[in-house]
Amino acid sequence: MASTNIKIVVLETHDVKTLNVVDASQYSTVPPVVTNPTLLVTPPGFPVVSIPFKVNSYNILTSDVLKISVAGLSIPLPDGVYHLNYSIAPSIDYYDAISFMRVNKLQEKFDRVFMTLDMMECDKEVKTQAKVQLNTIYLLIQGAIAAANNCATIEANKLYDKASAMLNAMTHNNCGCSGNNFIVNFK
Question: What pLDDT, in 10s, does the model give residues 86-113?
Answer without folding.
Answer: 988 655 567 788 999 999 999 999 998 8
